[in-house]
Amino acid sequence: MTERVSDIGEFGLIRRINDLVNREGIQSEQVTLGIGDDTAAFLPRLGYELLITCDCIVEGRHYLPEYIHPSDLGRRAMVVNISDIGAMGGKPLYALISLGLKAETSVQYVEEIYRGFLLELNPFGASIIGGNITKSGNGMFIDITLVGEVEQGKAVRRSGARPGDVILVTGYPGQSAAGLQLLLHEPEDSKIKEHPLVRIYNIPSHRAKLGEAIAQTGCASAMIDTSDGFLGDLGHICEESRVGAELFKERLPISKPLQEAALKLHRDPYDFFLGESDDYELIITCRPQDVDRIRSSVSQCCPVSLAEVGRITGDTGEIFLLLSDGTKQPVKPSGWDHFRKDHGQ
Amino acid sequence: MTERVSDIGEFGLIRRINDLVNREGIQSEQVTLGIGDDTAAFLPRLGYELLITCDCIVEGRHYLPEYIHPSDLGRRAMVVNISDIGAMGGKPLYALISLGLKAETSVQYVEEIYRGFLLELNPFGASIIGGNITKSGNGMFIDITLVGEVEQGKAVRRSGARPGDVILVTGYPGQSAAGLQLLLHEPEDSKIKEHPLVRIYNIPSHRAKLGEAIAQTGCASAMIDTSDGFLGDLGHICEESRVGAELFKERLPISKPLQEAALKLHRDPYDFFLGESDDYELIITCRPQDVDRIRSSVSQCCPVSLAEVGRITGDTGEIFLLLSDGTKQPVKPSGWDHFRKDHGQ
């Protein structure tokens, strides 16, 4: 018989989670008190700033429970946060997990979610040190707070881009958004979960190690992860840095699988690239003379492509797409604000 | 016309919150990066451990929106977390706020919630440094992560109680639970919100400054806040310390308003005292010879009553109520686990 959360209760579930975390997670000497007291406690390291971020994913809104394995769901929720720490140039250390659960959820389902968290945390030697469990009547949610560290003064912000800087992007943004559309387009196809773009949507990767390596060069003037889509996040850099941007359309890295998926879905692949997509790639800006140092830090870290796609301008808040015929097309981030009335979601 | 969250969107709302926090909140020099980047960042202090906790309150489950002003709701959500930091002997520093909001929520309602957060944080010089906003289809939630600090080695855990230790409790537990029942009992009475016990339920207080003062004595063997009710939290101390407890029934501090409310509700006031109630008082254990030092630290800190209600025993996990006629009655925490099937909520 399936064991439900309601069978073992909140405190029974906390004990089971604690056992799993102790068995399969990493123990850190800096943690003086883990799960099970009023708070967790840890000793910070001298010479480091602490980074802290939280991100929440909600059932039916950020994921479709029928299409994602709970372990992948855990990975997905953790990746979102790891990516934010990485986009500052930091290293993840400690996670707190706040879960909103339905009473009928199986204990095994919750344990699998935690296995997903640990799959993402263990490679960094990072650990789960606390959290909270709440009964949620309608729809589950997973809210993670992640603490990281970065050498004092090495954090890369959104606000440092300057006119003349080059705009770089890792990997192939837009693939995750196309994966989601494939999933919604053919929900009855049992093999759809195995499609490479659907896998990218379900288990997004992050560039946290790369972010740390790039920050170490001291050459990045601004950095952000593409959690609000490429244009949305370039827009954040422009807003915080009070600059504008020009993008060379033909240099935007559109992957072959994205081209094929767009063809199948009768969509423009650039819409996927520029719009909202959970790819968690990095946008980096730097002076033109620093591009080589950043390229070299990337190639020493991992086999990820790095494309030079545009430049920062002084036209505050304006983003243009430069076409191959020489024309200039203004573009605006769209589709990345879930609350706006004009947004479909 | 009422301005809704859907009118200004997620990023518009973040800007408004940022403005409010900058205008009405405290700025800390240790914070190197606040709201508006991938993460927040701060410099920890040498010689201090960092404490971290999160707690979530859900509409309809932890609060009744029609009976609570949004500013009081914010205070309530923050108090829960401040109380946890205080129960370790720590001082609150930085909060991250994760909100699940409905699109039709008014911007003013959200701003009032933030005013409530600041009302509780400002007296500590603590600040809001980050967060996340999610669209939640069904029911709002407020999930807060609070970071605090405590001198290295001074944190008071749940696990240090030893047989022979005295059990102390601050204030008058059970009043909040009675306040909630009064609210549910007479929902049509417009004056009910002004009843002192209903106010205690709606805007619970915390004993964080007291917890810090008690920790400084170095005399408390264990400490916890009564967020799961008096028996529930004494049970946590017993479990983590592997001990038992005996309580002198006639010494349990039942306030006059609680006695009167219990009479009106045809309930036993001891049920309110022992059961689940959001009072956020402190349970402290210490050696008998240390009681005076703790009493003196309490009286120097604030005018709060401190009752000696029992003693720790070696009967692991067993809690008894000692009646005035000399009989001994076993008691078990009940009603404090929201997921259990046998629980009414």
Structural class of chain A: alpha+beta
What characteristic shape of chain A results from the CA principal axes?
globular
Mean pLDDT of chain A: 93
> What is the highest CATH level, the class of the largest domain in chain A?
Alpha Beta
Largest interface between protein chains, with number of residues from each side = A-B, 75 and 76 residues
> Largest sheet of chain A, described in full?
7 strands, mixed
Full CATH superfamily name of the largest domain in chain A: PurM-like C-terminal domain
Helix content of chain A: 25-40%
CATH-defined architecture of the largest domain in chain A: Alpha-Beta Complex
Cα-to-Cα separation, first versus last residue of chain A: 38 Å
Question: Can you tell me the residue ranges of chain A where pLDDT is under 50 for at least 5 consecutive residues?
Answer: none
| Total count of helical runs of at least 4 residues of chain A | 10
Number of strands of chain A: 13
Q: Any idea how many domains of chain A?
A: 2
For this entry, what is the oligomeric state of its chains? homodimer
Placed side by side, the strands forming the largest sheet of chain A appear as 8-10-7-11-9-12-13
Rg calc of chain A: 21 Å
Q: Determine the strand fraction of chain A and express it as a percent band.
A: 15-25%
Order of helices and strands of chain A: HEEEHEHEEEHHHEHEHHEHEEE
Query: What is the CATH fold-level name of the largest domain in chain A?
Result: Phosphoribosyl-aminoimidazole Synthetase, Chain A, domain 2
